[in-house]
Specification:
This protein is mainly α. Helix content is about 60%, strand content about 0%.
Length: about 100
């Protein structure tokens, strides 16, 4: 049998690829923005689940359509401070925004 010499391919883990990609400032900015959007979306979902409120009920409370809440929860909707404040008020929460270094 004639075996061809095979080139070894090193498979990288997701963390290794991400670490490499995050060295690119443009990629890092985009990644951080999407990460923040996801964190906000997950916080809203968690609040809604804790209070046992449907998307439709939350939408009603803040004057939006259910589909808008769906987009917010999937990170597809850019949020204004006004909308975030309405969401916080609907859950009797205080909206806090801060800048960290």
């Amino acid at each position: 049998m004639n075996f061809k010499k095979q080139k070894k391919i090193k498979l990288l883990s997701f963390d290794e690829v991400l670490k490499k990609e995050l060295k690119d400032p443009e990629f890092k900015r985009g990644f951080e923005l999407e990460k923040k959007k996801l964190e906000i979306s997950l916080a809203i979902i968690e609040l809604r689940k804790q209070k046992r409120i449907s998307q439709a009920k939350l939408a009603d409370k803040i004057g939006l359509k259910q589909s808008a809440i769906g987009r917010i929860e999937t990170g597809e909707q850019n949020l204004t401070i006004e909308t975030l404040q309405k969401i916080a008020s609907a859950f009797n929460k205080k909206l806090v925004v801060n800048f960290q270094t």
